[in-house]
Design brief:
Blueprint (H helix, E strand, L loop, with lengths): L36 E3 L2 E6 L16 E10 L6 E6 L4 E6 L2 E10 L7 E7 L5 E7 L10 E8 L11 E8 L7 H16 L5 E7 L3 E3 L5 E2 L2 H14 L9 H10 L7 E8 L6 H15 L5 E7 L5 H10 L1 E7 L5 H13 L1 E9 L5 E5 L7 E2 L4 E8 L5 E8 L4 E10 L5 H20 L2 H14 L9 E3 L8 H6 L8 H5 E3 L10 H5 L25 H7 L3 H9 L3 H28 L4
Parallel strand pairs: 8-22, 10-11, 10-14, 14-15, 15-16
Antiparallel strand pairs: 1-2, 2-7, 3-6, 4-7, 5-6, 8-9, 9-20, 11-12, 11-13, 17-19, 17-21, 18-20, 21-22, 23-24
Helix pairs in contact: 1-2, 1-6, 4-5, 5-7, 7-8
InterPro entries: VWF_A, vWFA_dom_sf
Protein name: VWFA domain-containing protein
Pfam family, one: VWA_3
C-alpha cells in the first residue's frame, strides 16, 4: 500500500472502532442496497459474510452465535423456487410471493464464506408487473411512484433480433496499457458471439478515425478473424479524444442496416467540451429515423469521463449504460454489457392503458428494449389511479407484435422509494446536467437527503458523537491531553463518494490515473503519537491486520519473548518521560 493510503476501489469501505475493552460487546447496524444479479433465468444475491481468522479470540475457543434472517418478496405473484444457498436455511413461512428463511447456529469460528442465495421465478414466457407506491409528505414530489418490470422468461425458442453493430472504441493516449488491452479482449469476445446474418464494423478514434471497413461487414469466420487482426494493429493508445465524429460516422454506416436492428456501442475513458451538443444532435437524428433508429449503448472507463453524459446518451438511444471504475473489472463488465445490449427479443416498447392517467412519466428518456439475458426495469411517476392491469406492447424479431399483461400491485411491505432511489437519482442528475436545470438539481438534493444517499449536489459528512451517559470516573481516566475545538470534533467530509461530471483537462492531457486514484486517508485521529524516533518508522511499516494475524499464529514462547521486549521498551519510554519531567531533560 502506498504511504498516502486511501481506497483502491469504490466498492471497498472500512470502519474503525477505537477503544474497545476486553470482553465488551460490539453492536453494529449496517444498511445498504444492492442490485440482484440475474443470469440464465436465475436471481441471486451475494452478501459479505466472511471474517478473517484474527477476529477469533485466542487461545481459548469461544462459542459464537451465527444468525441469518432472509425475506424474499418477488412482487410477481408467481411461484418462487429456491435454487441454492451458501448457508443452511430453514423455510419459516410462505405467503403468496413472500417467503421467509432463517439460519441460526452456534459456531466455533465466524463464517469464512460470503452468504449467497439463488432463486427463480417460474415463467415459461415473457411476464412482468407494475409495483405502485403512493407519494409521502417527505417525497421530493407529490406524484405517486411506479416500477414496471419485464422478465424474459425461460422460452429458449424466442428469437433474438439480427444485428447491425458498430463498435466505437476510444484509443487516445490515456487508454494505454491494461485498459485498452481489456477492451480489446472484451470486444474479441463480443465479435465471437455474433452469429450468421449479423453485420458489424469497428471504429477506433482519437484525434483521427480508423475504420475497419468502408461498409458493414457480414459475419463469418474470415471477417471476424480479419477484424481481430485489425484491432491488434490499430488499437494503439495515442492522441486526443473526439466523440462526435465517430458517432456521426457510425450513424452514416448504419443508414443501411440490411433489415437488422442497428446498434452502436461507444467505449471511452475521456470527457469532451461539446457533450451537451452531442446529446441534442444525436436525439434529433434518432427522432428523424423513427423506429429503425440505432440503439446507442455506452461504457465509461475510470473517473475522468462524464458518466452522466454517457448515461444520458444511452437513455436517448434506448440503449444500456455501464461502467468500470477499476482496471480489474473492465473485461468482465464489458462482456456482460455486450451480452445485455445485443440479445434483444422485443423492441419499441410502449405502455397501453395510460391515456387517462395524468402526468404519466418514465424516469428514462425512452423505455429500452427487452433483452433475453436480463430483466427490464423502469420507474416513473404519475397522477391519478392506475387500472388493475396495464398492457406492454412491442415488436418481435419476426416483425409481429406482442402484448404482455401487467398486473398492478399496490405495495405495503416493499419500500419502493428506497429500492429505486439510486436509479432515480442518477437519471435525474443526468437530466439536470443536460438541461442545466436548477429545478431538477433541487429534486436531486431532496431525494439525496430523503434517502441518505450522496449526490453531486450534496455532501456526506462523518459526525463524531459521544454517548449521553458516560461514567465520570471513566471519562476522567480517558480524558485526552489535548482538547479539540468544536470545529475539529463536529464533522468530517467524506470525499470520493460520487463520480463528478468528468475532467476535460485530464482528458486533454491524456492522464491515465483515472482508475482507483489513491486519495488521502480520511479518519478520526485516535492517537497523535505512539513512539518516537526509529520506533515510529518501524511501526509505520507494519500493517495492523497483518501484525494481528502474525501474532495469532505465534507459539507461547515467542509471545512471551515479544511481551517482555515490549515491556522493556515501555520501561525505557517511561524512564525517558520521567527524566524530562523531573530533570528537565538534563543528563
Amino acid at each position: 500500500m502506498p504511504e498516502s493510503g486511501g481506497l483502491l476501489k469504490q466498492e471497498l469501505f472500512s470502519l474503525t472502532i477505537p477503544q474497545v475493552g476486553g470482553g465488551e460487546d460490539i453492536f453494529a447496524t449496517i444498511r445498504w442496497s444492492q442490485k440482484l444479479l440475474y443470469h440464465n433465468g436465475q436471481f441471486s444475491v451475494e452478501v459479505p459474510f466472511s471474517f478473517p481468522q484474527f477476529v477469533n479470540p485466542l487461545p481459548k475457543v469461544f462459542m459464537k452465535k451465527e444468525k441469518i434472517q432472509l425475506t424474499v418478496n418477488s412482487g410477481m405473484g408467481k411461484e418462487v423456487i429456491l435454487q441454492g444457498t451458501s448457508h443452511p436455511l430453514k423455510e419459516k413461512g410462505r405467503q403468496g410471493e413472500k417467503l421467509s428463511f432463517l439460519h441460526e447456529a452456534a459456531v466455533e469460528t465466524w463464517s469464512t464464506k460470503d452468504f449467497t442465495f439463488t432463486y427463480t421465478v417460474y415463467s415459461s414466457d415473457l411476464s412482468g408487473g407494475v409495483l405502485v407506491q403512493p407519494s409521502t409528505l417527505r417525497d421530493y414530489e407529490d406524484r405517486d411512484m411506479f416500477c414496471l418490470f419485464l422478465l424474459p422468461g425461460n422460452n429458449e425458442n424466442r428469437k433474438v433480433f439480427r444485428k447491425a453493430v458498430v463498435y466505437i472504441v476510444d484509443t487516445s493516449g490515456s487508454m494505454q496499457g491494461k485498459p485498452l488491452e481489456s477492451v480489446k479482449n472484451a470486444l474479441s469476445t463480443a465479435l465471437s458471439d455474433l452469429i450468421q446474418g449479423d453485420f458489424f464494423n469497428i471504429i477506433a478514434f482519437n484525434d483521427e478515425l480508423h475504420i475497419f471497413s468502408s461498409c458493414m461487414e457480414q459475419v463469418n469466420d474470415k471477417t471476424i478473424e480479419n477484424a481481430i487482426e485489425w484491432m491488434n494493429l490499430n488499437f494503439v493508445a495515442q492522441g486526443g479524444t473526439d466523440i462526435m465524429r465517430p458517432l456521426s460516422e457510425a450513424m452514416t454506416l448504419l443508414s443501411n442496416s440490411h433489415d437488422a436492428l442497428p446498434q452502436i456501442y461507444l467505449v471511452t475513458d475521456g470527457s469532451v467540451d461539446d457533450e451537451r451538443n452531442i446529446c441534442h444532435t444525436v436525439k434529433t437524428q434518432l427522432i428523424n429515423r423513427g423506429s429503425k433508429s440505432p440503439r446507442i449503448s455506452t461504457f465509461g472507463l475510470g473517473s475522468y469521463c462524464n458518466h452522466y453524459f454517457l448515461r444520458m446518451l444511452a437513455s436517448i438511444g434506448k440503449g444500456h449504460y455501464a461502467a468500470a471504475l477499476d482496471t480489474g473489472s473492465i473485461e468482465g463488465r464489458m462482456v456482460q454489457w455486450f451480452q445485455k445490449a445485443s440479445s434483444t427479443i422485443v423492441s419499441n416498447i410502449s405502455i397501453d392503458g395510460i391515456k387517462h392517467i395524468q402526468d404519466f412519466e418514465v424516469d428514462s428518456e425512452y423505455i429500452p428494449d427487452i433483452s433475453a439475458k436480463y430483466p427490464l426495469c423502469v420507474s416513473g411517476r404519475y397522477h391519478g389511479k392506475l387500472p388493475e392491469t396495464l398492457i406492454a406492447k412491442g415488436q418481435l424479431a419476426d416483425m409481429s407484435e406482442i402484448s404482455i399483461e401487467l398486473r398492478v400491485q399496490h405495495l405495503k411491505d416493499i419500500p419502493l422509494d428506497k429500492v429505486l432511489a439510486k436509479q432515480q437519482m442518477d437519471l435525474l442528475t443526468a437530466k439536470a446536467w443536460l438541461l442545466e436545470s436548477k429545478e431538477l438539481e433541487r429534486k436531486v438534493v431532496k431525494l439525496s437527503i430523503q434517502n441518505s444517499l450522496p449526490s453531486e449536489y450534496t455532501r456526506m459528512v462523518l459526525l463524531q458523537t459521544s454517548l449521553d451517559k458516560i461514567d465520570p470516573a471513566q471519562q476522567a481516566k480517558n480524558k485526552p491531553a489535548k482538547q479539540s475545538s468544536p470545529e475539529e470534533r463536529s464533522a468530517m467530509p467524506l470525499r470520493g463518494m460520487t463520480l463528478g461530471f468528468g475532467d476535460v483537462g485530464a482528458t486533454r492531457e491524456n492522464l491515465t490515473t483515472g482508475f482507483g486514484e489513491i486519495k488521502a486517508t480520511e479518519r478520526f485521529e485516535v492517537f497523535e503519537k505512539a513512539m518516537a524516533g526509529c520506533c515510529s518508522r518501524v511501526a509505520d511499516c507494519i500493517c495492523c491486520m497483518c501484525f494481528i494475524k502474525a501474532c495469532s499464529k505465534m507459539n507461547d514462547q515467542c509471545a512471551i519473548v515479544i511481551a517482555q521486549t515490549c515491556a522493556a521498551l515501555a520501561c525505557l519510554g517511561c524512564f525517558e518521560c520521567c527524566s524530562e519531567l523531573c530533570c528537565g531533560g538534563a543528563n
